[in-house]
Amino acid sequence: MRYAETGFNLEVDLTRGNIERVETDPRDTELYLGGLGTNAKILWDRVPPEVDPFSPDNLLIFSAGLLCGTPATGCNRTIVSTISPQTRLMAFSMMGGFWAPELKYAGYDKVILRGKSPDLVYLWINDDKVEIRDAAHLKGKGTVETAELIRKELDEPKAQVAAIGLAGENRVYFASIEQGRSSASRGGIGAVMGDKGVKAIAVRGTKDINISQPAEFLALCNEVLEYIKFRNANPIPGVMPILAGLGSPQEMAVHDEKWHTENFMWGNSRTRRKDFWNEDVAKKWMETMDSVRTRLISCYNCPMKCGATISIPGLPTYMMKCFSKLTYTMAAMSDLDFGFKIAQRATEYGVDGFSTPQVMAFALELYENGILTDDHFPGMPADNEGRFYWLLDRIVRREGIGDVLANGTYWAAKAIGNGADTYAHNNIKKHEQLPLKLSMLNPIYFLMYSTGEKINITQIEGQFPQAPWPTREEREAFAKDWFQVPDEKFKQYLLDWELRGEKSIPYYPTVQMCCDIVDWQERMHYIDDALGMCSGLSSFPLKPPYHIHNYPKFISAGAGIDMDEAKLTQAAKRYRTLVRAVNIRRGMRRKDEKPPENHWKKRFPELEKELLDTYYQFKGWNSDGIPTKASLHEMGLDYVAEDFVKRGILTDGEDAPAKEASAEKEKK
Ligand code: SF4
User: Fold this and answer.
1) What DSSP letter does each residue of 283-322 carry, written as one string?
2) Which of 77, 302, 390, 471 has the largest count of CB atoms under 10 Å?
3) SS3 call for 567
4) Average pLDDT value over all residues in the chain
5) Average pLDDT over residues 423-446
6) Percent of the chain, pLDDT > 70?
């Protein structure tokens, strides 16, 4: 019997209209867990680097995490993986909401799409009955609208629907897949879904999931719930509101936006408004929040209520996701009211809430600087907010300049030329980053930005405080009950870390300590992404309820896999390396691993080189960032080493210099 997982994937060949229920190998679960881990294995095995993102041979994998559908609180993530049209690397974007548990209850761990449908279709998974249905009538419809229409025509109000909007249909490189109050946004995975001709996947499941040791598992779940109550009652003192508690309160629960509005950049990631937040703004923004927020809502099986339904007079109700309320507001140098209104349209179109506002602000900066002219913007309104709506409409339809902008700032700048690339100044691995520009190099963030393959920094950071408390007493108070650390040495790192002086950034934490910290943070995110856990209860906040000490117990009691901390660490390292291997095979190298040039004003080239050299070594990668044969062998990934040697990426020499990037074809 399989526990926690169903042991079956749905394989859908869209070209032939064929659907198969395929049993999976339980040994893969032991080696790679589930979710992201087994997604990476499938992409490695079945999508060679010659396959373009919009090839029928690219796969689009929707995976429930290993523990989704069990009673584990907050375990509801769908991990969507494919080759990104924007980065040309592996994209793995997570969505919360309700879809993944429903898929498990229907009897499947993953839906794997391959090929391309000649006509627009949607998939209807109703327990054992799975159909490919015509979606011609849904062409051009919004994501929320599509979900409603599908539920009505199926007469199944409980169906969970993941859908793309116009942006996905038109293969916009930052198109999202929307579901419930969540979305899988980063990497342009909605464009791949549109390219495959799939408008939506609706799922309804009524089966059970087996738990290996139900009593032990429920006891663990209760411990987590108790701890959540404790943390809600005891926020961490001395940090910004969004880091004081658990979950994603920046979505809709918190309206103190002093930190974001004063520290994140406005416009095209250029302008800081240090004194923006004052009593008047606070009052006005609170009134705006209260007037549009109908009710706070949670994802499946979670008490946190991070999101909210938003009802604005004259507009359909929608659900605010992630941080969209401020990304549009700040890119347009506008007001919160505008952010709520345009986010409704953007949600229906199905676009990423971080990239889209930046792309529009980038276009307007090019216009202001004469690189784009009136000819590129025929009929664009004069007011700033009107311009954003106008641009959004053109981008998702790929009309005029919108067709160029729809490929994101990196590719748009290349197409526009004439110095436009200096305005696309906020990219990592060809993807728009958070608009955060700072003064002094932070060595921990330098490593995370450089080597992160999840692209989004908020999905890499988390366990270690972002800055030290000013006094040792405060640091001691924090470290006192910090039981989540994998090793006591992390407490000492924090205790000795000072705001100024010898033991402050950029030279403290030391290079070796930075490696330990970044590795720990990344490991926790990768574990979440295999189990399907919301990072808001695990890898993102300080002192979370899920951590390296209780996760092995959850896996053992839930999935029936004999697990301990060392084995879990090794499994996470294994599939994290596999993600890197997929990307190395597609041409990613050290030269791609750098934060935006202007991310910090004060840079330290020698220190940065040492950081990267040391971290690469720490991870078992050679000086070009390629996993070495020895480290691959240690993780049981000899098949990766063999492939690397066959392709000339590694030679038989252990730390051979990498062959020049083969997949670095900058073609459209
Ligand atoms: S913590 Fe918030 S984002 Fe995470 S599962 Fe719960 S409600 Fe969803």
Assistant:
1) HHHHHHHHHHEEEEE--TT-S---EEEE--TTS--EEE-T
2) 77
3) helix
4) 94
5) 93
6) 96
Q: Other C-beta atoms within 10 Å of 499: how many?
A: 12
> Could you tell which of 94, 251, 252, 306 is best to mutate to test the pocket of ligand 1, judged by most ligand atoms within 8 Å of the CB?
306
Burial of 581 by CB count in 10 Å (0-12 exposed, 13-18 middle, 19+ buried)? buried
One-letter amino acid at 57 equals: D
Q: Determine the pLDDT at residue 157.
A: 97
Q: What is the pLDDT of residue 652?
A: 77
Atom of ligand 1 nearest to the CA of 305: 7
CA of 628 to the centre of ligand 1 (A): 38
Q: The whole model's pTM is what? A: 0.96
| Angle between helix 511-531 and helix 443-451 axes, rounded to 10 deg | 50
Amino acid letter at 323? F
Q: How confident is the model at residue 587 (pLDDT cuts 50, 70, 90)?
A: very high
Which of 534, 537, 546 for mutating ligand 1's site (highest number of atoms within 8 Å of CB)? 534
Examine the pLDDT at 238 and tell me if it is beyond 90: no
Contacts of 278 (CB under 8 A, 6+ apart): none
- Looking at ligand 1, which residue's alpha carbon is closest to its atom 8? 299
What are the contacts of 21-26 at 24+ separation with CB within 8 A?
21/107, 21/108, 21/130, 24/109, 26/2
Instruction: Out of 302, 324, 458, 531, give the residue to mutate to test ligand 1, the one with the largest number of ligand atoms within 8 Å of its CB.
Output: 302
Instruction: Give yes or no for residue 545 CB within 6 A of ligand 1.
Output: no
Tokens of 242: 């969004």
Asked if 622 and 630 count as a contact pair (C-beta separation under 8 A), the reply is no
**Span 13-57, pLDDT tens digits:** 999 999 999 999 999 999 999 999 999 999 999 999 999 999 999
Q: Give distance in angstroms: CA of 307 to centre of ligand 1.
A: 8
| Closest residue by Cα to residue 189 from 203, 171, 201 | 171
Give tens-digit pLDDT for 154-182. 999 999 999 999 999 999 999 999 997 78
Report the Cα–Cα distance between both ends of the chain, in Å, rounded.
47
